[in-house]
């Protein structure tokens, strides 16, 4: 598939370029455009996130001082440290405080899949629009397309649910529940209060787009299958 596309792009005369944008109005092409668009939103909403957790700390010589911990994709929270309340670090009782958890594997799996899907959709659309006749004449291309579509639908299912679980854990690891686990806040004369955490609405949206991508790719299996010789054989048998 990739080799054919490379030859087609380099030598359009050899592959018989026939541009037909009308195919984009058919289910096969239209759904592929949607898959391309939704993949962009999936990796943009997840990969572009930046946030911070804020606490209010009172200790020796400090009253309600703001300390923050900034975090972002790929969400290796265990490397994120809170700022110190003051240069004297509460009289030496404040030690480095890290967030808990490393959710990079789920986040990177989700974003990497979205990027690969984005690239594949571009390649598929080039073939659909410019080389549909070659696609239909060679049975290997529809079968390859079908296999990739089935695998991608499954990967969207796995990556989206893994990322949704990781997101729930990220919210726990950056929310008010972190206070009891901070040893520096247990020092005599030191109190800590949770102030705020950046809204994770865009991350929630990324999960929604993951589910939409899963539905799109799952539904597209039928339309890709119709172009394969498997469907033609089943019609002849029936």
What is the topological layout?
Layout lengths: L1 H9 L1 H4 L11 H21 L2 E10 L2 E11 L16 H4 L11 H27 L1 H6 L2 H35 L16 E7 L3 H25 L3 H9 L1
Antiparallel strand pairs: 1-2, 1-3
Written account of the structure:
This protein is mainly α. Helix content is 59%, strand content 12%. Strand 1 and strand 2 form a beta hairpin. The protein is rod-shaped. The protein starts with a helix and ends with a helix. The mean pLDDT is 87.
Question: Which short descriptors sum up this protein?
Answer:
single chain, 238 residues, mainly alpha, 3-stranded antiparallel β-sheet, rod-shaped
Brief summary:
The protein is mainly α and 238 residues long. It contains nine helices and three strands; from the N terminus they run H-H-H-E-E-H-H-H-H-E-H-H. It has helices at residues 2-10, 12-15, 27-47, 89-92, 104-130, 132-137, 140-174, 201-225, 229-237; strands at 50-59, 62-72, 191-197.
